[in-house]
Amino acid sequence: MSRLLRVADGPYAPPVPARELTVTAADGARVHVEVHGPENAPAVVLAHGWCCSTAFWAAQIRALAADHRVIAYDQRGHGRSPANPAYGTEPLADDLEAVLDATLAPGERAVIAGHSMGGMTLMAAATRPAVREHAAAVLLTSTGSARLVASATVVPMRAGRVRTWLTRRILGSRAPLGPVTPLARRILKYGTMGPGSAPHMVDACARIVHSCPSRVRHGWSQVLDLLDLDHGVRELRMPAEIVVGTADRLTPPEHARALAAALPDCVGLTELPGVGHMTPVEAPDLVTGKIRALAAAYIPSARGERAVPVEESA
Q1: What is the pLDDT of residues 141-175, one digit of tens each?
Q2: Long-range contacts at 62-67 (CB < 8 A, ≥ 24 apart)
Q3: How far apart are the C-alpha atoms of 291 and 280, rounded to whole Å?
Q4: Which long-range contacts does 32-35 make (Cβ < 8 Å, 24+ apart)?
Q5: Which of 89, 155, 165, 224 shows its CA 20 to 30 Å from the CA of 191?
Q6: Coiled-coil regions in this chain (predicted)?
Q7: How far is residue 241 CA from its own chain's centroid?
Q8: Three-class DSSP category at 78
Q9: Quick one: how far is CA 46 from the chain centroid?
Q10: Per-residue confidence at 6, pLDDT binned at 50, 70, 90?
């Protein structure tokens, strides 16, 4: 099976980047990065979730690159970033910090959007110098900070030890996903998307998820199972907005509400009726609009103002 299964046309076909680069994280992991849009435009950084890749953000990249510099990267082991034996929240933070240092000028501010594991990456990296220096605002979509397996509703039964055990076995499976068949699409839609998701949305997500190697999928599932980033949420001191779907089975709205209560500067929580876990694909215009609005509100260059260096604004 091809490592990268992507749709060839339509809104979810990944656009061709203006440039590509490989950055090296603190532990030597190599991370694939794509840059889209004008070099001197306000910056947006996109961090995808578990089993996904930069292709997941195709709709946002396509819309934002007209007037923003959009930086998207593949989490280690995903997309075109090689697998690495280090799994954990610190490696996620290492990768984000390396991307920010390599693509943003000293003192340059950006909106950083994280979906699912990408949002968890932001929580893990909240105290890192690069995040403190570069994050003007963040968007957290379909994510949570802890207790993910116990709260997931992929298994349709009452919460408790049995459901948690079954969920852990399903999400942590080592079995290869195989080709993208009609049955595979139905299974993926049930577990990760809202019931009203259009077929082309489901197909795009299925191709992306099925491209993730089974060993990588399993390795990161173990990290998500033991996740505890409540402390990181409290360290995200920049303006933060949250988006979640009411039909999200992987990170149900209870996580978004807990984040909103814990964040030092939560500027909004949007719950989308009937939308599942794949919010950037299922509600592309809304997610793009949230990113654009955060950039306009919190990046001086997006408003035509002089950017104030970090040391001056401290």
Answers
A1: 999 999 999 999 999 999 999 999 999 999 999 99
A2: 62/11, 62/15, 63/284, 63/285, 63/288, 64/36, 64/37, 64/288, 64/291, 64/292, 65/15, 65/36, 65/37, 66/37, 67/37, 67/38, 67/41, 67/42
A3: 11
A4: 32/73, 32/74, 32/79, 32/80, 32/81, 33/71, 33/72, 33/73, 33/74, 33/99, 33/102, 33/103, 34/71, 34/72, 34/73, 35/69, 35/70, 35/71, 35/103
A5: 89
A6: none
A7: 14
A8: coil
A9: 7
A10: confident
Q: Cα dist. 254→39, 151, 201, 258 in Å?
A: 39, 8, 25, 6
Residue type, 307: A
Q: Tokens in use for 287? A: 């997610």
What is the distance, to the nearest Å, from the Cα of residue 58 to the centroid of all Cα atoms in its chain?
A: 13
C-alpha dihedral, 57 to 63 to 66 to 71, nearest 10°: -20
User: By the 8 A CB rule, do 147 and 82 touch?
Assistant: no
